[in-house]
Write a structure and sequence with these properties.
- The chain is mostly helical.
- Strands 1, 2, 3, 4, 5 and 6 form a 6-stranded antiparallel sheet that branches.
- Helix 10 packs antiparallel against helix 11.
- It starts with a helix and ends with a helix.
- One of its GO terms (molecular function) is potassium:proton antiporter activity.
């Protein structure tokens, strides 16, 4: 085949891809539907011109189109890894983990239910072997989310809904292809029906092998990329190699699922990459993969569509009935999941509530696409599959895909309109009118200032001001006549806007490199939770999300357990350092939000709502400060190191801005600028390195580090070490209750504790003690001690404490200082002999 002609055809396909997007927007149809229709038209045109006697001039072009090397392995080994890998890189994993139960259940259970439903329905309606029917079920069970997600985003559907659909689609590709490989093996064994035991026996290798291969490859790749911080193009090139090598390695070497291996490799890079790669390099890598995935998705759709006319050439009348069976069975299976299983998960409180209209939209938006066609093509190409089975599988999969794309895809936006998902709620409509009125008032003020600055003609200014004033009066009147917005709803809308502005501020700080990419991902996830919490449950949802952002999660508690029980301090050190940096970043962001409340929200929602938001924001700032203070008391030196690092990074950002301004003003040339930026990049790489956090040492070492025991000799320290007992307390845990009788003194080895008594509170850090007042005073004090950070405490019973007090002047001084700090006469605590010393 002429290489020039083939190159021309492929280049022309890119022109078609470029024209498809604006055409889809003009026709208000999903982009993938337009690509499929254009591919079918091109394929049909090529067949027509090749066989017509009207002209032979276009025969070479038609032959080139029909002769393109389109094989199933091209789809599965070239395009599919690209699509899967980019999808995992673009996922917000922290937010996906919030909904892992519905995503996993919908992905795995939906695929299994669809496979069984279609398989057994076909077996009932035809004479095909059960293995072939189940193979068809596996082929048509995977969905393409691109159309429905793009439409949901265009109508501002809840982000959580789109996220569940994206996560489900990514994982159901892996599940469907794994089932396809399983049943394909039975079909190639001369149509033998599968046994459940044989099917289940292969799944551990398919799933487990893919997970292990993907994780190892992802970790190794990120490590290699981190060794090349100054070579961004090399990092991107290595990332491009990863999905293909891991896919081929899993499939060909160990017989595992290549799809699962690619997904796990992408998830691993998504989790570890932002913390090990420079922020700009990670951002550029994501942009490159977005472009590669766009091309791959477009090419896989249009090339697969080119094959549809040839596949349908052998269609028979009875095939239409079987296509109808597949359509009904697949829609029924998806309905069972959406209207049966999903509400059940909501009742069980493991899945977010999804309204009926949205479930109906998801049902009708279950389009099939290129993956379905690629799997069907793999069957038709196999020499081990009988010819009639290849024909039937190809026609059923292609017919079903065409139904979903042309019938469902073309009517999806109309169905969404019928369901009322493209219209604002009455509250949003009222808010929209009020926002317009406030915005026009601001515009009028700005236009007036502009007119004065430029000394425009007074007659023109007067005429335009009159015209604009009419529009403003109409907007104000409309806003006043609209349905009133309840104060509760105003607070909700204000909180959503505040969280949205918080998210924008985070992105701006990330671009300035004031916040590292790793921390930006976490604070962005928290901002998304705040938005969704406010949208779903108003003020209560916002407060719950805010408290969650500073709380110690299960992973942190597990790290504390590993450190305290198994002496594995690595996870705890890493998570504590992450928490330090996160709290510093969050404090920086929160302090910028008061101006937004005063300047924007107050004008739209009024002073009362603004005061409520100020109060909620003040509580968040106080919670962050408390959590940060707890860490400062626990690791005072480390907090100083992080703040120094922040100042250095800020200085580098300002330095970069100055160099850029000088270049734009022509004060320096590009050669000087490049040299300055190279030196700046080296300093920035050094500033990006986070200082290492050392967790507290063993108990024997801890005792020797306490200033309270500085005057004890080695023998006394050894006896004390044997008498002390270790206790670990998580943040928020009450150590001493007001109603309890204190019989031990607590020494803080690491962490921070807050004491409350008689309306006063004190915060203690490492090296300090508490509980001694209750033991030494003649009448017990009603005080409460609560850990405000994960803390390691050393406890000493009352008898040994009194013995220690008799022999340690440093301890007696500490007791006196503590008593004076709290307004207590030291003479009440210590004996006359001790008090006089």
């Amino acid at each position: 085949m002429d290489i020039v002609l083939v190159t021309t055809v492929i280049a022309s396909l890119f022109l078609v891809i470029g024209a498809a997007e604006p055409l889809a927007a003009q026709l208000r149809l999903p982009y993938t539907v337009i690509l499929a229709v254009l591919g079918i038209l091109i394929g049909s045109g090529a067949i027509f011109f090749l066989h017509t006697e009207l002209t032979d001039a276009l025969n070479p072009v038609a032959e080139a189109i029909l002769g393109l090397p389109i094989r199933s392995n091209v789809f599965l080994y070239v395009f599919l890894p690209t699509l899967l890998f980019q999808a995992t890189l673009g996922m917000n994993l922290r937010r996906m983990l919030d909904d892992w139960v519905p995503i996993l259940v919908l992905a795995v259970v939906a695929v299994v239910v669809a496979t069984l439903s279609v398989g057994y329905a076909l077996a009932w309606a035809s004479a095909l072997p059960l293995a072939v029917c189940l193979l068809v079920g596996a082929i048509v069970s995977t969905t393409d989310p691109s159309a429905v997600v793009s439409i949901f985003r265009s109508i501002s559907a809840p982000q959580r809904l789109a996220r569940i659909i994206e996560g489900e689609s990514l994982l159901n590709d892996a599940a469907a292809i794994a089932l396809f490989g399983l049943f394909m093996g039975f079909v190639m064994l001369e149509g033998s029906d599968p046994s459940l035991g044989a099917a289940l026996a292969r799944f551990p290798i398919l799933i487990g092998g893919g997970v292990l291969t993907g994780w190892l490859a992802g970790r190794l790749t990120v490590w290699v990329m981190s060794l090349l911080p100054q070579h961004e193009l090399a990092q991107i090139s290595i990332s491009v190699a990863l999905p293909y090598l891991v896919y081929i390695g899993a499939e060909q070497s160990i017989g595992a699922s290549g799809v699962i291996a690619v997904v796990v490799a992408g998830l691993t890079m998504n989790l570890t990459g932002p913390g090990l790669l420079p922020p700009q390099a990670w951002s550029n890598l994501r942009e490159v993969w977005d472009l590669l995935a766009h091309w791959a998705m477009a090419l896989i759709f249009i090339l697969a569509a080119l094959l549809i006319p040839r596949i349908l050439e052998e269609v028979r009348a009875g095939d239409f009935m079987l296509i109808g069976v597949v359509v009904l069975a697949a829609i029924t299976a998806r309905s069972v999941i959406l209207f049966g299983l999903l509400p059940l998960l909501t009742v069980m409180r493991v899945s977010p509530a999804v309204d009926g209209p949205y479930r109906a939209a998801i049902l009708w938006g279950g389009l099939r696409g290129a993956v379905t066609l690629a799997l069907a093509l793999a069957v038709t190409e196999s020499v081990s599959v009988p010819g009639e089975i290849k024909r039937v599988v190809g026609i059923l999969a292609t017919g079903f895909t065409l139904f979903t794309l042309i019938v469902q895809g073309a009517t999806l936006r109309t169905v969404i309109g019928w369901l009322g998902l493209d219209r604002l709620s009455p509250m949003d409509q009222a808010l929209s009118r009020q926002v317009v009125a406030v915005a026009l008032q601001t515009v009028r003020e700005d236009v007036a200032r502009t007119s004065e600055n430029y000394e425009l003609s007074r007659d023109i200014v007067r005429s335009e001001a009159k015209r604009f004033g009419k529009r403003l009066d109409k907007a104000v009147k409309t806003a006043e006549e609209s349905v009133d917005i309840l104060d509760r709803d105003r607070v909700t809308l204000g909180l959503v806007a505040l969280a949205g502005h918080e998210r924008d501020t985070i992105l701006a700080r990330m671009r300035e490199r004031t916040i590292s990419a790793r921390m930006a991902d976490q604070v962005l996830s928290d901002a998304d939770r705040l938005i969704e919490g406010a949208q779903t449950h108003g003020r209560r949802g916002y407060q719950l999300a805010a408290r969650r952002s500073v709380a110690y999660g299960r992973a942190f508690r597990a790290a504390v357990w590993l450190h305290s029980r198994l002496r594995l301090s690595g996870p705890l050190a890493r998570m504590t350092a992450d928490r330090f940096e996160f709290l510093l970043s969050q404090r920086l962001i929160l302090r910028d939000l008061n101006a937004f409340i005063h300047g924007r929200i107050r004008r739209i929602h009024g002073r009362q709502v603004a005061d409520v938001l100020h109060d909620l924001l003040s509580r968040r700032i106080e919670a962050v400060e408390t959590a940060l203070e707890g860490l400062r008391l626990q690791y005072p030196g480390y907090a100083d190191q992080l703040e120094r690092r922040f100042i250095r990074r800020t200085a580098l950002r300002l330095e970069e801005r100055e160099y850029t301004t000088m270049l734009e003003d022509g004060l320096i040339g590009s050669e000087v600028f490049t040299d300055l930026m190279k030196a700046l990049g080296d300093r920035r790489a050094a500033a990006e390195q986070r200082p290492r956090l050392l967790i507290a040492p063993q108990r024997a070492e801890l005792v020797g580090q306490f200033p309270l025991f500085a005057d004890l000799d080695e023998a006394a320290l050894k006896r004390l070490g044997g008498a002390l007992r270790t206790r670990y307390a998580n943040a928020g845990e009450v150590i001493i209750r007001k109603t309890s009788v204190v019989k031990s003194v607590f020494f803080i080895a690491s962490g921070a504790v807050e004491l409350q008594s008689a309306g006063q509170s004190w915060r203690l850090g490492g090296g300090e003690m508490f509980g001694q007042m209750a033991i030494l005073m003649q009448k017990p004090r009603r005080a409460e001690a609560r850990a405000i950070a994960p803390s390691t405490l050393l406890t000493l019973d009352e008898e040994r404490f009194r013995q220690l007090l008799d022999g340690s002047e440093a301890l007696r001084k500490a007791v006196r200082a503590s008593a004076e700090k709290r307004g207590i006469d030291p003479g009440i605590l210590l004996s006359d002999d001790h008090a006089g010393e």
